[in-house]
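Quick one:
INPUT:
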């Protein structure tokens, strides 16, 4: 019987008996079914790989062992037990199964994630030897990941809860995004934009060295991958709107810097044309804020204040390309003040003639947004 060099840092027999490893880190599957049928193990396996990669509870991933089935009843409810000797995997099928599993990961999990596959030999009593295939899914450095729900389904986030793989809840998705450090704004920024700049210098970098614009683009892709959650959860809808607005702002800033050496009139025409090309971002941002407003309970006045302020920010940019009016901008700010009289509004997004009304104190005028390149 052929032997393979192990890629594991733990003995396979310890995995089978859950020794030296937490039970939630091991999943047993009697067989691998390469076809995407509803009753096979194809989707169960790729969902669990995705969940281990997301590593929501910081368990550092886990293992899926193909060729082993659990007992239906255990002597101790807290003691998982497997049927021994294991069913095993035919030696002639090992390479095919590995190709199919890696192919399934490439096809279904985004961004790309590749677990370690290690064929193992289990030495059983009475000289019986069985092949099993261990899938070692380590915590991903590129998380969070999504996986197709089924052949025609949505891309969803998955997490491990105890010994089960579950679809992530909206709260868990929010935490996954924060853990992955993919979104360039945090909860504090979402709660009060007045305390943080909405525009960035070209030289600014996120913690991992990528440009802010690139980080926002990556965040936008993640929100798109969340599917229906952006339409049904007020917090996620609002964050998606803010992401689209930030994408517009930072793309404009980047373009302005690229053209800063051109003749002034030509540069202004270029900037106006570029703003018009990017109008869809603003319109989509407005749609998502309105969706968030519809989903927000009237009792959450603080949230509604932020939502109406964001509509004011969006219309301040539409006004620059003659797609909105000062009256609309101030109406949104007034409504934001109605829900939260103390809400701060960034000076750069206030028409000059109204700045004393919405920024009455000298402290407010010291906002870092004063360095922005926008002109009314």
């Amino acid at each position: 019987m052929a032997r393979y060099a192990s890629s594991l840092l733990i003995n396979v027999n310890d995995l089978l008996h859950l020794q030296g490893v937490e039970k939630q880190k091991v999943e047993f599957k009697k067989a691998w079914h390469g076809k995407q049928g509803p009753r096979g193990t194809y989707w169960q396996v790729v969902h669990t790989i995705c969940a281990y990669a997301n590593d929501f509870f910081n368990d550092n991933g886990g293992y899926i062992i193909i060729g082993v089935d659990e007992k239906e009843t255990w002597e101790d409810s807290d003691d998982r037990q497997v049927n021994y000797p294991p069913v095993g995997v035919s030696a002639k099928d090992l390479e095919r199964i590995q190709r199919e599993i890696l192919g399934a990961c490439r096809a279904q999990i985004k961004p790309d994630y590749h677990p370690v596959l290690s064929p193992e030999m289990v030495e059983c009593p009475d000289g019986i030897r069985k092949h099993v295939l261990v899938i070692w899914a380590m915590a991903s450095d590129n998380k969070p990941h999504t996986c197709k729900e089924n052949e025609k389904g949505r891309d969803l986030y998955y997490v491990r809860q105890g010994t089960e793989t579950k679809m992530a809840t909206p709260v868990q998705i929010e935490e996954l995004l924060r853990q992955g450090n993919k979104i360039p704004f945090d909860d504090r920024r979402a709660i009060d934009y007045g305390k943080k700049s909405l525009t960035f210098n070209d030289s600014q970098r996120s913690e991992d060295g990528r440009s802010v614009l690139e980080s926002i683009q990556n965040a936008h892709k993640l929100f798109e991958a969340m599917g229906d959650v952006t339409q049904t959860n007020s917090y996620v809808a609002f964050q998606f709107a803010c992401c689209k607005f930030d994408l517009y702002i930072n793309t404009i800033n980047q373009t302005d810097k690229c053209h800063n050496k051109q003749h002034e009139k030509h540069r202004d025409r270029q900037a106006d044309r570029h703003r018009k090309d990017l109008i869809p971002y603003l319109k989509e941002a407005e749609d998502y804020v309105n969706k968030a407003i519809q989903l927000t309970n009237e009792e959450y006045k603080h949230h509604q204040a932020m939502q109406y302020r964001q509509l004011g920010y969006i219309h301040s940019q539409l006004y620059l390309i003659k797609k909105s009016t000062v009256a609309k901008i101030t109406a949104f700010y007034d409504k934001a003040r109605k829900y939260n009289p103390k809400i701060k509004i960034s000076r750069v997004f206030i028409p000059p003639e109204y700045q004393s009304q919405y920024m009455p104190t000298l402290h407010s005028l010291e906002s870092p947004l004063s360095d922005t390149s926008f002109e009314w």
